[in-house]
Amino acid sequence: MSFQRTFSDDLARERRARLRAERLYEQVRRELLAANERLKAHAFSLSHQIIAQREELSAVRSLAEALKGQNSKVSEDLHTAHSHVKLANTRLREAVESLIDGFAVFDANQVLILVNPAYLRLFEDFPEMRLGIRYKRMIEICAHEGLVKLDDQSPDDWVSMMMSRWAAEVIEPVELHFNHGFSVRLIDRRAENGDFVSLANDITKMLEYQAELIDAQKRAEAAAEAKSAFLANMSHEIRTPMNGMVGMAQLLVETDLDDEQRNYAETISKSGESLVTIINDILDFSNMDAGRLELRPEVIDLEKTIHDVMIMLAPAARDKRVELILDYDMFLVDRVKTDRGRLRQVLTNLVGNAIKFTDTGYVLVRAIGVGHTAHGQMINLTVEDTGIGISKTNQDHIFTEFSQVEEMANRRFEGTGLGLAITRQIVAAMGGQIWVESEEGIGSCFGISLELPSDGENAGQDMVKLDPSIKSVLIISDHLISREIIARRLQAAGVTTTTATQIDASMRQIAKSRPDRVLLDQDLSAAPAETVLSGLAEHVPDTPVVMLCSDLLAAQALRRAKRIHAALPKPMLWRDLVCALGASAGDCAPCAEAGIPAHRPPEPQREELRVLYAEDNRTNQLVFSKMLKGLKLDLTLAENGRQAVARFKELQPDVIFMDISMPEMDGREATQAIRALPGGAHVPIIACTAHALRDEIDRIMAVGINAVLTKPLNKTELIKALQDHAPSGFDLTGP
Ligand code: ADP
Asked: Is the domain of 361 the same as that of 430?
């Protein structure tokens, strides 16, 4: 029993122990399992961490790699930049050193910190001049060591001038002339950091060239001067005998000659005139070539200026029976500012050409206002002819020098081919334009347009008004254009006009209309003017007849015979026509032009005009007296200036003609002497000179001359000058 119990006890204990052990085991196993689970979770999270860290590491690694790459690029770039800078520095240094011009940099304290050899070369003998020197010291060396030419300045003044230059806000360049021969233009700049950059521009060669150029220019000017003086002298010398030749030939033509003799005399006269034109053209061209085309604007009467030129050329037109017509725009101002002489020259050439190249028909000069500008009036002047015309191809060339349409071989017209070239240059100098329209065989129209400052109102237009009692005018003329121009202006003045072309018609008109005035053209083709006058005297004996004439002398005879009331040269000036028909004021005093000395009061008791002519050349004396033959004058001759003064005292002449180049006392001195004498201040003195240069003519005018006639003298111009300066109302052609 006890055994049994013991065993079962043992068993039980063992079972309990086993059970405990099993429970323990189970607990430990669970704990182990839990620990394992935790371990696993930990390991899992660790592995995650590791993975993340690895990724991070790898990212960091690649970043590091990238940075490493960048770093090496940066250092590579740095290296490249460094070498570039080095290269640039080298280049800059080499460039600065090889500069022909001096280059230097001073720091803000004006101490030299960079300089090139060219700069230093200016101070070759001054070793002090090197890096580190102060600007002021450098300037002092220049001034006190006699390095630089100071002109009239003292060294101290010059130093302070150079120092204050650098103190200025903008440093002006300065030229330095070194005594060793170099010249530089110093261009200094203040840099942003306060440095001064100084460039010494070598102008030595440039100044040498400049001096050479000035020298060459002076020599060229002297040569041109000599050429012009030679030409002027030649022209003077040629003109003196030409005066005898042309004058005598002109007089010879007017004598009783047979056809053959007349032909010879006319050829001499025409050739002489052409020679004068050639001399004038060449003289003018040479002056323009030397750049001496200066304009002398003055207030002129435009209508009168154009008219004067046409009157001067009228004899040539009359000889060819070419009608000269002036159409001056009635609304155009007449006082304008321009160079009278040059405008006359332009018109003389254009109208002269028109007459030269026209055998039948007319030459019409129109002046038309084409608008106002800020500076004056735009004016178109046209010269229209019915001559030979110019082909389209030739129209392009005629304005160039020495160009003529005709070939040398078939040359029919005289000329130099310079006239239009000179005209073009004058018009261009006046700021205008010139053009031509032409058709071969039909005619040409040359035009110039000019902008001319106008002076005041329509003085000329308002000056003379037609007598309001003149209500109707009959115009008898063959020229349609002339008739229309006159009719248009008369109609604008409120006059009724009728026109007729031939005697029968005119008589019918007269019978019908009984006009207040008749305007009769001297050149009628159907009947001589005298026949018409007889008809008029029969039908309307009391109607005043005004004759428009190309031959004034013939008309004067008719006037003296009281067959006509007045004679007007063609082309006529509107104000003269008004005076001739009857001006409202009753007299024509306003017609006395500005520029023409005031007419002195008429001296009715005077029989003859006392004229004194001072001229040393016998031939010229003869030409002069013959040209004035037949006029009512008492001519006294003087052989030099001294005699002229003496004759003036004795005779108190009405008009004096004065040669300029005379022995003993020249024309200028004589004029001055006469002007100082009692009664001498106002006597008209007209110079007759072989000088044609403007400067010379100006010098002549300056001594108190009233007008200048250039030799060779032209009979028409001479008589016109005499008429212009005779006491007003004096009739030179009277019986
Ligand atoms: P020239 O002294 O020969 O007249 P210009 O220079 O005045 O010289 O004229 C050049 C040329 O132009 C003339 O030779 C002529 O052939 C031509 N010409 C000029 N004006 C006219 C005109 N009104 N009618 C026809 N031809 C003209």
From this structure: yes
* pTM attached to this predicted model: 0.62
416 and 496 housed in the same domain:
no
Q: Would you say residue 115 lies in a domain?
A: yes
Last residue of a domain, one of 58, 88, 118: 88
Cβ of 444 less than 6 Å from ligand 1: yes
Task: Considering only residues 595 and 606, tell me which one the structure prediction assigns the higher pLDDT.
Answer: 606
Atom of ligand 1 nearest to the CA of 388: 25
What are the angstrom distances between the C-alpha of 423 and each of 196, 274, 303, 352, 609? 58, 18, 19, 12, 39
Crossing angle for the helix pair 529-539 and 503-513, to the nearest 10 degrees: 20
Domain that holds residue 388: 298-452
Residue 178, both tokens: 């070194």
Any domain includes 522: yes
Question: What would the pLDDT profile of 484-495 be if each residue is shown by its tens digit?
Answer: 999 999 999 899
404 lines ligand 1 (CB under 6 A): yes
Token representation of residue 293: 């085309």
Interval 19-51: pLDDT, tens: 777 777 788 778 878 877 887 787 778 778 878
Residue minimizing CA distance to atom 12 of ligand 1: 398
- Residue 524: pLDDT over 50: yes
Q: Are residues 572 and 496 in the same domain?
A: yes
228: pLDDT strictly greater than 90:
no
Based on the fold, state whether residues 577 and 637 are members of the same structural domain.
no
Task: Name beta bridge partners: 686.
Answer: 657, 707
- How many angstroms does the Cα of residue 502 sit away from the middle of ligand 1? 35
